[in-house]
Write a structure and sequence with these properties.
about 290 residues, 2 domains, two-stranded parallel sheet, two-stranded antiparallel sheet, 4 strands, about 5% strand, flat
Length: about 290
């Protein structure tokens, strides 16, 4: 076979492999879409229960701020309840279908990764999901009720008039989702700092020197996320943030310690040279 024919055969083989990857990607996207649509339909069946669960902190805050009065929520247009329920159903479907969607994505990506890359991706994925879930649960159980209690406390009676809250469904759901999203993202701090430390942009020593400023920033963020005047509510947010920052320092220190141990082993000739890249130079892919 001539060099030209060999080159054409190689191109054809590469093109076929590319088409096969596209076909597999289409199959994975199709499976994920079907599961998501089924989850949306199921979520619509339970959407009112989702709404009751999501607004529980607001109802508790209403009763605490307004002397035990039952909570009353309003809607400004005939279609508002439908769109609020649709938003809740879609978000609930995303949460329910996300494990399967991530699994389909993993089945597509994993064959092209090395063993070290697989372990790294799995560790980052599970850590990110766990931190976000933990932050959202913390916001739901700890932060939302005190913050809403303070805001509802502005409803009071004066001489000759009174201030009454008119809480719209859409605004309440948006507030709750923003609070849960904000606390979930805030709890990703250890993951972000650990990645920065792993690639060498930050060190445990520099993070420790910044510790006193991190305390101030945690207090500021705690004051923003908990708009109440009481110190307890702000400490409930600032305390975990500062603790997460110090946990991040410990994680970066452990990463540096493991890296130093590898370098010491290299100096003694006890191990192979560690690779700074994700893909080892002498390894072969699993496909």
């Amino acid at each position: 076979m001539s060099p030209e024919e060999t080159q054409e055969a190689t191109v054809d083989e590469s093109r076929m492999s590319f088409l096969e990857h596209l076909s597999e990607l289409r199959m994975r996207l199709r499976n994920a879409s079907i599961v998501f649509l089924v989850a949306v339909i199921v979520s619509f069946i339970f959407v009112k229960k989702y709404f009751v669960f999501l607004t529980r902190p607001a109802r508790l805050a209403w009763e605490a701020a307004l002397a035990g009065q039952p909570a009353v929520f309003h809607f400004a247009s005939p279609t508002e309840p439908f769109w609020v329920y649709t938003k809740i159903a879609i978000i609930g479907a995303l949460l329910a279908a996300s494990p399967f969607v991530l699994w389909e994505l993993w089945k597509f990506v994993a064959p092209g990764l090395y063993k070290k890359e697989r372990r790294l991706v799995m560790a980052i994925t599970f850590s990110t999901a766990g931190c976000f879930l933990g932050g959202s649960i913390f916001g739901y159980l700890i932060l939302c009720t005190p913050a809403l209690t303070y805001m509802f406390s502005f409803a009071e009676k004066f001489a000759g008039f009174e201030i009454q809250p008119t809480i719209m469904m859409d605004e309440l759901v948006g507030f709750m989702l923003a609070m849960l999203l904000g606390t979930g993202v805030a709890f990703e701090l250890p993951i972000v700092i650990a990645v920065l430390g792993w690639i060498g942009l930050v060190t445990a020593r520099s993070l420790w020197r910044f510790d006193k400023y991190a305390l101030i920033l945690s207090a500021v963020v705690g004051g923003v996320l908990t708009p109440g005047p009481d110190v307890l509510s702000q400490l409930l947010m600032a305390g975990p943030l500062f603790a997460l920052y110090n946990i991040s320092i410990l994680i970066v220190w452990l990463i540096e310690r493991a890296r130093k141990k590898k370098m010491d082993d290299l100096d003694r000739g006890d191990s192979d040279p560690p690779s700074q890249a994700l893909v080892p130079s002498g390894d072969k892919p699993l496909v």
